[in-house]
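[Structure tokenization] protein backbone as discrete codes
[Encoding] learned vocabulary of local backbone shapes
[Protein] chain in single-letter code, fold in tokens
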Amino acid sequence: MLTYITIGTNDFQRSVAFYDAVLNVLGYSRLPAWTESWAMWGDGNNPDEGFSFCICPPFDGHPATAGNGTMFAFKADNAERVRRFHAAGLLAGGENEGAPGTRTAYGPDFYVAYLRDPDGHKLACVCQPYSPEADEYSKE
């Protein structure tokens, strides 16, 4: 359905460091970019294939702002990656918006963590289906 998502940043290098940290946990590397003020991560080595997540300063020259009610959710293949995503994000300058764990509002098999990136964009990392029995580090 989607080809890419682009979000704005007010501090490009800080945001590149943040997204390198959290997306590396999920197995994504930075892809070749078109310009020095544009970064993207995705599948493979070709930004024209699959889905890409991109950051850049806003084209209109105004400050980047986070959308109220906007959130980007990244998929993890297990709960440990969700926890590592969250920890890496905090170490890279993100803010906690919800510690890793299940959210009963979404069902017992929905394991998620929430962060804000350094520009205030809300992110989630989700493992579903989640099984506490299969999670050797589960404290639930």
Summary: The two ends are 35 Å apart (CA to CA). DSSP finds two helices and eight strands in the chain.
